[in-house]
Amino acid sequence: MSSENIVISIKNLSKCYHIYDRPQDRLGQYIIPCLKRLVGRQSKNYFREFWALRDVSFEVKKGETVGIIGRNGSGKSTLLQIICGILTPTSGTVETKGRVAALLELGSGFNPEFTGRENVYMNGAVLGLSREEIDERFEDIAAFAGIGEFIDQLVKTYSSGMYVRLAFAVAINVDPDILIVDEALSVGDELFQRKCFSRIEAIRKNGATILFVSHSGSTIVELCNRAVLMDTGEKLAIGSPKQIVGRYQKLLYAPIDKQGDIRNQIRRMDEQLVISGNIEQVTLTESNLASVGKQSLKEIFDPHLKPSSTIEYESHGAYIESPSIYTLAGERVNNLIRGKVYRYTYTVIFTKGASNVRFGMLIKTTSGVELGGGVSAGSLRDSLPYVEAGFIYRVEFRFRCALNPGVYFLNAGVVGIVNGSETFLHRLIDIAMFRVMPDTENLATGIVDFECFPEIGIQEASDHESRR
After folding, report:
1. Model-level pTM?
2. Closest by Cα among 350, 411, 410 to 384
3. Would you state the pLDDT for residue 452?
4. pLDDT tens, position by position, 441-451
5. 410 near 432, Cβ under 8 Å?
6. Keyword ATP-binding: yes or no (predicted)?
7. Contact 55/13 with Cβ under 8 angstroms?
8. Number of domains into which the chain is organized
């Protein structure tokens, strides 16, 4: 990676907090060590160390969108605050190039005794805009926030939704070189969220670099070029969003006694992480699809069409085996024909008793975008009340192949109640893959075939003239 293209450089970054059990310990730490040093005696610390970050290093190049994902308390927000200059690191360095706009604690700089208009000018100045620049952008900010006449009302009269909408509108209209976002993409209603995503997409297309934190794996997959997995203050892995999200989910659903082993596995995988050139990407090339198209359009099973990105969750008393796709006639296939119905099947072996059991499947693109799937029961009320240890269940989902030519992946999962909450008893990510055969007569575009049939007719010129 050329140093000229690097806009964020993080090297050996660490952040340590001092945790005091009692208020008087803080005072003691401030006074007693000084007194003991004066008389030549050794002092003890009255605090415990908490390392929010430990030796984190990575670089982000210009124009990249990088997502940071991890469990609560993994150091994600601390990392962003150090990059923005809000916090000072204990050790290590951060270098950024260009104007930085941050969407961290939205509206944290707003004064409730000022109007929305006054806060726009004040917050814009904090973000580095001159008054003339804010004047030029004010109408866009007001329109984006969509709070109408409330823009001239005191902010203390705003609802929480109006508050964050205005804060987001200010920050998003700075036209930054680097945009940093900390879980701010869930503000407002669905319409406003769509506006936020569209605006961020426009900023990205203009060449800005985006670094954001999210707990949503699908958001990371859809928006990012790369992703970083954080856990307990450490950078465990960096790579393609699909691979990183898979590792995060495995760690998230792991039993507590297995989490240390899984962290070590992820560290080892990070050393061998292949970001490009895997089987998923190779099978998508036009030459490969064309070669398949030369064959007769018939379902077949290709033994070489196997995923290289499979991730298995730790078991909670169940194991999934033999996930496969079959035709309705019972023939195993992985080269499918668009529009036909297939059966996706697997077996589940229960080694422990489980309650409120449900089964599921999911179809995804090669980049990890979730296209859809199904579950065996829509609620706990309709699930299997109890499954005894030693039982084996055969699960089957029928689905119509409504996908356009390409390569797709399948998940398989079984959930049940563990320690009072629903969790995965076992899950296999990218356990199977299939190819949808090319069809030269296919008029559909995109990923999903919605069976859009065009109807085109000629309109008489006289009819057009009569309507003018």
Report:
1. 0.76
2. 350
3. 86
4. 777 888 888 88
5. yes
6. yes
7. yes
8. 2
